[in-house]
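INFO batch 0412 | record 1 of 1 | parsing
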Amino acid sequence: MKKRTLISILVIMVMTTFIGCSNNKVVKTSNDSGKVKVVTSFYGMKSLVDEIGKDKVEIYNVVPEGAEPHDFEPKAKDMVNIEQGDIFVINGAGMESWSDKVLKSIKNSNLQLVDASKGVELLKAEEHGEEKEEGNDEEHGEYDPHTWLGIESSKIQGKNIMEALVKVDPDNKSYYEENYKAFEASMNDILNTYKQKFEKLSNKSFVTGHATFGYLCKDLGLEQNSIEDVFAEGEPSPKKLEELVSYVKKNNVKVIFTETLVSPEISETLAREVKGKTEKIYTLHSNEESKTFVEAMKYNVETIYNSLK
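INFO prediction complete | emitting tokens
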């Protein structure tokens, strides 16, 4: 009799599990760790979530590190992880062209979508020297999507992430708020320290692999030029290269910055042309040297500053 009772209890437990799964409702403690399951679109968003969520979150990152987030096509396993997540964080601003299609197929009504760039004053792609070819608006959108690489804009993104975590996990509200305050203070420290330093420089122009630092330039009063445009659409024409050589010489640029997603060959050629050198800069498409978001941002600003002194 006891054995039958035990079997009945086990059957009920199994049935309850399947019913719970069929409802497509995911609660915070549904995973083995009991942490908030956050799905991020690419590494830049993962790095931001790490700053705010720390050890209270379990993160699944969709776009492989070092891959281009814009043109990525999610796999079946990615769809499953998004479906089972508590929070799905995208950069927005047109960065993830695939996100709308993905979200239409998701049935988890409890999934919290975070468009991290919500509230950021977006820059038009051509506002920092990059003119797009006719017809590209439909493919890419008219705005520069690299909001996470600006100081002021990343603070807004961090706050959006913090608010979503609080909504999903209200018991740890103060934990997320304190982490955000620490993140905001660190970003303010970078801004306040280096804005004054850059103001004292006569040369504020630098060259990158592709135009990813428009928001940082806005924060610090800098000007970037680039080998490839905002959307890194291939090698520049001979005319563009000629213009870059002229720009580098005119502005006494001695350092050409290289990035993960752009081949360094042209940067190296350009550097040799002006007897300069290349140096890496982080775009947070991958975990480079295990730097945190704040550490990568500080490195970028400091490295740009040192190249202009």
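INFO post-check: The longest strand covers residues 205-210.
INFO record closed
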